[in-house]
Write a structure and sequence with these properties.
Helix content is 8%, strand content 46%. The chain has 475 residues and is mainly beta. Strands 24-25-27-28-26 form a five-stranded parallel barrel.
């Protein structure tokens, strides 16, 4: 009773001036008191809730229209490790089984709100490992069953594990300056949002599996700038689950990314459109898969993509562009793709060998993979420009490890319905680029080099029309 009274006395004093509330750390869970402040600020037309330095233990908080959460340096919001403190939100998505990789829960959530912000120099820490292990334990005791539990990999599904931020259907969203840590699943998840600014964020999300950095699902008018992402899964990922929507007018600039998957990725959920996407000034380090992956496999139209100035060191693959068809009869489109000033160093060994959580290796022997750009029979990628590209490969290929001679290049499987990944085709007959089912591709000022010998040719193409090569060198 004493604690209850103290909380409401603090609430009364703090809400006298809604525009500049300060909240100080108190023992025990702070969720109810904080939610009451957010609700009151929202009821009065908006305001800022400021966190002084200290630790705050919270369950799920709902951020409402007009409210800013400001974390001063030294303020740390610690997520509860009890799954019972997180409730699912309705997302209104329409793509069926593909929803299984998208959690509806989060530490800080917001739905259909306008003008919301999280700012400051403080930290949001989801305590994701402890939370994920609690979800796992409750599933095995039968107390809280996860119907989508991954039996093969022995871990709870993404649906059962909360994200750090889960923002749905919101407009005018600003996330600036804060440090974001240790989600049980994806880090920052934005679904059907528009007019967003994400800047100067420090994201370290390596506590558990599926720890993406930033995920945009069917969002519009988004700027992501000057962010540092270190993630156990994709760094910055654009997805679409709605065939009638998509990601449009997305600008990603001057970010640094480390990942046990891909640094910047489109897909694999790709039902709606990806249009007018501009990416520039991205620095990639120690990344297991691709520096840039562009994938339409569920019927998406991906067009008018401009990528400039990606530098990647110790990264498994430079570029992967894929047009597949895994979702019934829906045919996708990939066209008008511009990639300029791309510089990548591909290592011989695993780029993420020193990570606690490492990407899953393929189950076949292979030499170092080239960068594939592949459509499918009867549905070709169109109009691709690669300009000012430098890729350094390690070489050291051995025919004893794996061997696809040029006269058997047609034996490379099409994998029309397979999950898209640059390793999806198995051993490939080239070491630099593998081009297949393309109509119109220009390679200008492309330099491919080897650190040691490789018996394969640098570039192999099949069913490619309109290949233009200008000032291309291999060495």
């Amino acid at each position: 009773m004493k604690r209850f009274s103290l909380i409401w006395i603090v609430l009364f004093l703090l809400t006298l001036t809604v525009a500049a509330q300060k909240f100080r750390a108190m023992p025990g869970m702070d969720t109810a008191a904080l939610q009451a402040l957010i609700d009151k600020a929202n009821g009065r037309g908006g305001g800022c809730v400021t966190f002084s330095p200290g630790r705050y233990l919270i369950g799920q908080l709902e951020l409402k229209s007009g409210v800013e959460l400001h974390l001063e340096a030294g303020a740390i919001l610690m997520g509860s490790t009890s799954p019972y403190d997180y409730a699912p939100l309705e997302t209104n998505q329409v793509a069926g089984d593909r929803l299984k990789d998208n959690s509806h829960r989060g530490l800080i959530v917001s739905k259909d709100a306008k003008s919301i912000s999280i700012t400051g120099e403080g930290t949001i820490d989801g305590q994701g490992l402890a939370l994920a292990l609690a979800v796992d334990s409750l599933h095995h005791t039968g107390e809280l069953k996860d119907p989508n539990y991954n039996e093969r990999r022995q871990r709870p599904s993404e649906l059962a594990r909360p994200t750090l931020l889960n923002i749905i259907g919101c407009e005018d969203v600003r996330i600036e300056g804060v440090r974001l840590r240790n989600s049980a699943g994806w880090g920052l998840s934005f679904n059907r949002c528009k007019k967003m600014v994400l800047s100067h964020l420090d994201i370290h999300n390596r506590a558990y599996w599926n720890n993406d950095g930033i995920d945009l699902t069917d969002c519009r008018d988004v700027k992501i700038t000057d962010c540092c992402v270190n993630s156990a899964d994709d760094g910055i990922c654009l997805k679409s689950y709605d065939p009638n929507s998509g990601n449009e007018e997305i600008f990603i600039s001057h970010c640094e990314i480390r990942s046990s998957a891909s640094a910047v990725k489109f897909g694999s959920a790709s039902y709606g459109a990806f249009r007018r996407i501009h990416i520039r000034g991205i620095r990639v380090f120690d990344t297991f898969r691709s520096a840039l992956a562009i994938e339409s496999v569920d019927g998406a139209t991906i067009e008018d993509v401009v990528v400039d100035s990606i530098t990647a060191v110790n990264t498994g693959n430079a570029l992967f562009i894929r047009l597949g068809q895994r979702s019934g009869n829906r045919k996708g489109v990939v066209r008008h793709i511009r990639v300029t000033n791309l510089s990548v160093q591909v290592p011989f060994g695993r780029p993420d060998i020193d990570y606690d959580l490492r990407g899953p290796e393929v189950d076949y022997f292979h030499n170092i993979h080239p960068a594939p750009i592949c459509g499918i029979p009867g549905n070709c990628i169109e109009d691709v420009l690669l300009e000012n590209v430098q890729i350094v490969y390690p070489g050291r290929a051995s025919k004893g490890m794996a061997y696809i001679p040029l006269w058997r290049k047609g034996d490379v499987p099409e994998q029309v319905q397979k999950y898209p990944e640059y390793t999806m085709f198995g051993e490939l007959p080239s070491w630099g680029f593998y081009l297949r089912h393309i109509r119109g591709i220009t390679m200008r000022n492309v330099r491919l080099s080897l650190e040691a010998e490789d018996f394969r040719p640098a570039i192999v193409e099949e069913d490619v029309e309109g290949l233009v090569m200008e000032n291309c060198l291999t060495e």
